[in-house]
Amino acid sequence: MTLIRLAIAAASASLLLDATALAAPPYSFSDHPSQDGRCIGDNGLGDIDRSEKACLEQVGELAQRVGPGLQLNFRNGKTRIYLNEEAKCQSNEAEGCVKYQLTGYFPEHDLVLIEVDYWEGASWLLVRGKTGDATEIVAPPHYSPDRRWLASVASSIGPAGPPDGMDIVPSTPDPSSKEWHYRTPDDGQWFYEFTGWDGETRVKLLASSLGLPQRTVSTSIEHRNGDWHLREPR
Predict the structure, then answer these.
(1) Structural domain count of the chain
(2) Whole-number Å distance between alpha carbons of 151 and 19
């Protein structure tokens, strides 16, 4: 594991939303890190201990590591290289530091998951193998029961975690199935944790208040009239 990922893991471990509850798995921002899309031979359990080596072996010609670059060769014949900024990551300021790693594959829908590491923080890209279309998400995603949707949820304190928010992405491109993205506002009063799917139309969440006395309530993201809606806690 690189120094940047160790820094992320150490910082997130001390700043997780539910630090007073049961400890999250190592190298994880969540008590419920997704195991969906974890590549064959990858024995990790957390969010940022996924194995690029295992993924490169599984996806074959779809992706390869070329020095500091992660090269994706899409089914439509196009190629894209995600290039690590190694020099910036080694500087004192580390402004512009970014590293890309292939950390997941969903063979049923030919989707790859790329982890994007910064000096402080991380995000992920869900990329379609056929076209190269990419969607930024806040955490490795969870499949819905029928695998029609992928849901990501993340909350953390400070810069060391992923962006705070939620994403729901259809596993197959379909004009009638819209992506949904929510980013928690800077003055938001709640942290959210993914707890599971309830069928294909409801994502269950646990919300914890920032203020005192702290409150924890159950809420959800629900699919109604063709769109996803967050039930904000009260």
Answers:
(1) 1
(2) 23
Give the C-alpha separation, 58 to 61, whole Å.
9
Q: Which domain holds residue 152?
A: 3-230
* Kind and range of the H or E run holding 118: strand 111-118
Which residue matches tokens 């295992």?
54
Query: Rounded to an integer, what distance in angstroms lies between the CA atom of residue 214 and that of residue 208?
Result: 7
Q: Hey, is 84 helix, strand or coil?
A: coil
Tell me if 153 sits within 8 A of 138, measured CB to CB.
yes
Q: What is the pLDDT of residues 35-61, one digit of tens each?
A: 999 999 999 999 999 999 999 999 999
- Give the chain's largest Cα–Cα span: 56
Mean pLDDT of all residues in 74-92? 91
Task: Supply 53's token pair.
Answer: 């080596």
Q: What percent of the chain has pLDDT over 90?
A: 69
Could you tell me the two tokens for 213? 């006395």
Residue count of the chain, please give it. Answer: 234
**42: exposed, middle or buried (C-beta count within 10 Å: 0-12, 13-18, 19+)?**
buried
